[in-house]
């Protein structure tokens, strides 16, 4: 009696593996040359990250337009226009956004943090680099000053004014950059935000995290009425007067 493997009508060829040849080659590469494969992956990852940081755009004023603002009488003289598809997209997006009102704010923040692609980067900054007061704003500011020449290369002094700054991560991000790359520069700054110690401010409108503010209170300008509300003209004037004490200012 023919064996099960040699029955008539059945091929004697070995059965094809369920994995494709590409999968087999991939596994072989990992098994035989793990170090080379790891370096290859790292090189590809570095290249992909570099492409993201190369996304820079420069906007220049058209040559035919004279410098300065257009004449006041020419503003809003062209009839308004709308794009039907964009209006529909706007309506759809707002409908989705309105559904967020049904979520508990703490759970929603936890969800967005876990879904953020920046989360592992922030973890690295906190635990490996051990930077001060690391948040998404910290990483954003550091990327800006590292990618663009916001701090002049030949400057020996640097002055900055930070608006709506609480809890202060833009300041700590700038401090980290200056200390790492420009240790000899003389830096002066002050900041503004809604005053977390002013009882008349709404808890829902301000950031109450005062860990950084408390240690640097003399560097904060809360305006004439001490609210920190820059929607009030007198508070804007107070910030302007204090900024005028700096010979040159970068608004961050």
UniProtKB/TrEMBL annotation:
- What's a GO biological-process term for it? 7-methylguanosine mRNA capping
- Bias category Basic residues: which stretches? 1-10
Which residue ranges does the record annotate as region Disordered?
1-27
Q: Where do the Adrift-type SAM-dependent 2'-O-MTase domain residues begin and end?
A: 132-252
Biased composition (Basic and acidic residues) is annotated at: 12-22
**Which range is the signal sequence, renumbered to this chain?**
none
Q: Which GO terms describe its cellular component?
A: cytoplasm; nucleus
Q: What is this protein called?
A: Cap-specific mRNA (nucleoside-2'-O-)-methyltransferase 2
Native organism = Culex quinquefasciatus
